[in-house]
Amino acid sequence: MHPAVSVIFFTVASGAGFGLIFLLGLGFPVGGGAGRAFVISLIGGGLAVAGLLSSTLHLGHPERAWRALSQWRSSWLSREGVAAIVTLVTFGFYALIWMATGERSAVLGALAAAGAAITVFTTSMIYAQLKTVPQWRSRLTPPVYLGFALSSGWLLAASFGSLGSAEIWGIALVACGWAAKWMWWTQAARTRLADAGSTPETATGLGFIGKVRLLERPHTGENYLTREMVHRIGRKHARTLRMLALLVGCFVPVAILALVALTGAPALLNIIAAAAMIAGLLAERWLFFAEAEHAVSLYYGHR
Length: 303
Prior knowledge:
mainly alpha; 10 helices
């Protein structure tokens, strides 16, 4: 699959934003009065909104994106849009009350937290329900998305909040998130299009005549399908990028969290851990798309 920058940014930024909203809704302690409440709420809501807006750039007609909301009965994409809007509106009221009175509504907070979790889950299901991409169609895809959203959101919250043993919890969440991803990578490496019943014979509809092989490409030039659905990446480059994602997105945040916990360094240092985590997730999400094999690639000669 073609790794579109807008979709990569969308899944990473909105995940971190909704992860932060989830924690704030559940009452993650944040001192400093209305000013700090405004800043941390702006970061959570801003990341979520920026990610959602960037996703529309991948559409052929972004101005028609609102029409997708009407298909919530059958489309995970539509459910994601509805859940995101409801969550952001609920969180907006929660943040306004928090800044104005200093009180954090338990009811609105719980609703915002539930909405954030549902939104990230619906995002993961956009990919996990696709039969045409067997690497994505895994029970591990939703846990990976939820785990990364929670861990990146925790790092952001710990940069401005004050929870006892926050760094220890952060290390555990980051480690669990990447452990789930490692299991996902292991499973994806063993998954092939044939496992989903997709072969050149099914792709061309010529299986009734026997084994099918491509003599010439169906098109002399590029088209939408070859640009979006057929993407190749060398195993060597994929392995290098995977190690880079682990180093920047896992080991660097864990090292910073450990430094803060052991030396008593300012919690604001955790913002560097959050930035490293997000950078690593951008690399991880690029691989998520680049390594995926779509069934349509069989029509263009891929086996």
